[in-house]
Structure formats: C-alpha cells, structure tokens
Predict the 3D structure of the following.
Amino acid sequence: MPLAVSLAAENAAAKTQPRPATWYLESIGVYGFEPSAVVVLAALVTEDPLLLIGECGTGKTFLLNSLSEALGLEHRHYNASLIQFDDLVGFPYPSEDRLKVEYLETPATVWAAQSVLVDEISRCKPEHQNRLFSLVHERKVQGLSLDNLVYRWAAMNPAGLDSDSGYSGSEPLDPALADRFALLVEAPDWSGLDASARRRIADPSGEGAISDDGGELARSLEIWKGVFRERISQCPQPIVEYAVQVTSLLGNAGFRLSPRRSRMISRSLLAACIVSGSEADETVFRAVLDASLPQKAWGAEIRPEAVAAAHTAAWDLAHASGKRYWLTEFHSETTMAGKVRLLLNSCPDPDTGSAAVAEYLARTELANPWDGVAFAMALYPAAASGRLPCIGAEGIADLGRLVSGSLAVEGAVEPYASPNGHISMSSYLGYLAGLPAARQDRARQLICHLAVNTILPGDFETVENNFHECVVLIAGVVAKEA
C-alpha cells in the first residue's frame, strides 16, 4: 500500500484533515523554520537524535522547548558549557546492602526525562562530550538505560576549523558524535527569513505563553508513528535506492557518509514522506539530504553544487525504471572503467548502448575531451569488428568519428608538442618506456592522437591508466566470446 494511501486511511479513521508541516510549528508559536518543518517533524516520528545549528538568537532552543511543551513531555534542558555530570545523574551513594551504587535524584536529573535538550553542545568539555555520547546514541548514562527517554536533541552555534567563525568557544563537534545525529537542521538567520516570519518573530505579544496547540501535533504524531511502524519493515524501494545512490555519489565527490548514515537517511525519508503525505515530492528528499550531512557539525566545507548533482542523480535513479534507469546509472558512474563495465555487463540493448556512448562523448567534449578520446579508442576496435553487441551502428559511428585516423598513427613521439608550448612531448617518454610492450604501443597511439588534435592533458598518466583498465575489461569479454 502506498504511503499516501496508508496515511489517508489513518486520517480518515481518526477523522482528521492533513495539514502542511509548517502549520504545526506556527501553531505553537515557532516561525522561520518553514523550509525545515517537514524534517523537524520527521525527527519526531523516527525518534532519532536531532541537532540544530545556527547563529545565536535564531530560535533553536525555543523550537525544541516548544515541541516538548506542545507534546506534554517530561523535559530536561541542559547547558553543555556549564553542566557537571552530577547534574545529569544526581549524587551517587551506596545502596543499603552496599552492593551497588544508587543516585540521589533531583528535579533536574535525567532519569525520568522523556526529552532531553543538550544546548551549546559544541561548547562542552571533552570529558563531558564523551559522557553525552552514550546519551545521544544509546539512551544510556553510566551504562544504565534511560527507559523513559524518547527524544534526544541538541543545539549549537556554527563551528569552523578556522578562527574567523565568530564563535571562539564553539568547537567543531567530534565526527563520531556528529554522526549519531540523524538530522542536522540549520536555523535560518534574519537574512533568511521572509517578511511574514520577520514580523511574527518581532511581535512580542505571545512572549512567555505556553506552547499549546490543543493537542493537534500529538494526535498527528500518533498517526504518523503508526504508519511509520507499519512501513519500516518494508520501506518503499525508491527511498532505499535514493539513500544508497546518494551515499555513493557523495562519497565519490569527497563527502563521506557512513553506512549507518545511509540507513538514517532512509528512516528520515520515510518519516518525512509520511509527514508530507507524499512519497513523490522531490523537495522533501532534498530537504532530508541537506539535513543529513554531518560535516556541517565540524565546520567542513560543503560544496552546494556537488550536493545538488548527487541529489539529482540519486532522485533519477530511485525513480527510474528499465532503460531509463540503466542510462541514469551509466551517467552517474564516475569512472571510465565503471561505464565500460556497465556497457559490457548490463546494457539493455544496442540502441541504449549507442545512446549512452553518444551522451558521454558529448559531455566530455568541452570539459575533458581526452577522456572521450580514451573511451572511444578503447571501445572502437572491438565494436567495429562486431564483438561488442551492446553498441549499435550509430554508437560505433560516433566512436569512429572521434578516433578517425588515430589508430594508424605511428612513429616517434618527439615531433609533437602541446599547443601552449609548456609541455614537451618528450617529457612523456620516461613514462612510456616503463610500460610493457603491448601497452606501450597503445599508449603511444593515444598520446599521439591527443597531441595531433591539440587536446593533450597535463596528467596523461591518469588518462592512460583509465584507458588501459578499459582495454583490459574489453579484452576479457572478447576472449570469452572467442
């Protein structure tokens, strides 16, 4: 049963109407978090740890305390920069039989808490940060389970690896601790608020009021959690596929996400789709991805263009099928050998293979034409002789146009020079001389063709290694067929 159908059935049974995610926050007096509303509510559904990151005065603490009030939770709010561990657990004393240690509880101790907010977590002393690790990750302190604890929240100011972050006391969060937070939501500053949010925030009329929405959030949350528990055992395939692909794509772009993170992305996506009432809303997937990058907690640079590209490719792969899925997977593959492997092993038909070849050659023409030439020179001999049925006549023609004449290039390398005059062809002789005979001949052909066409790369060794890997793959397939 699709998520939207499940949710609609639950709403009908409860006689409630679905509301936009922003409504739930506004109804408890929280404004400015509209872009992240679905993500925040998804964290309530999964009950996974949530971290808010933002400038001072952006409402991080207010949001989390307001949620606890609206849900009627037994809440604890600790300032990590000041907290002593006894504040959490109470004062230890021996039991009457002196066989174990018990704790003298106070209204501030954590044992009865249903929700905990660790504020200013990036200002926490290292020894306390380590103790808070098990609280965030396992709902435990001193190895003892916190049976009542449901929600683990934290907040921090931006932390950078340089001294210009503006918050000298806010240190980068330890990556292991940051990775325990399923969602890391950035609180918008004044410049990121629209006119309506600015006026509502500036209006002091509701100051000090208890956050009370008449139980609407609690009732909806019960419904959402019910659907989540029902669907988590059979998570929709597009959600799992998106998590798999975006984790891989970001890793290829230099942003490592842990295997645990990929599962947290799936959980958060499922919950966010339930909250939004749709499993086909691309903006929801992007919002969850943006809130799933733990690097922001230790101030690492995050390239928006790389995240956007990974999201687009992962979305296409997750929602594609058949030939379209294969083409998307082909173009998402970052290595030349990986593309050749897909062509050889799983290409649906020659027409699809030809389309993949044409699109790849077009993409490399302006950005890195040497890769296109190496790709074509690796494939063309076997394709032209009919030994690569994965590529049709049009694809073979495209490959042939690119390598025309190059396979007949012979002679010494020395006469050729790079177009800008800065790279002498003779500088490659040492590299060529170190290659085995057959590979040396192929590499010589490749470098001569690139030089003749004035597209010689600065890093020929990398191009040649990629070319050789592709040749080996193709030779293996041809040998099996022979």
Q: What stands out?
A: The mean pLDDT is 86. The chain has 21 helices and nine strands.
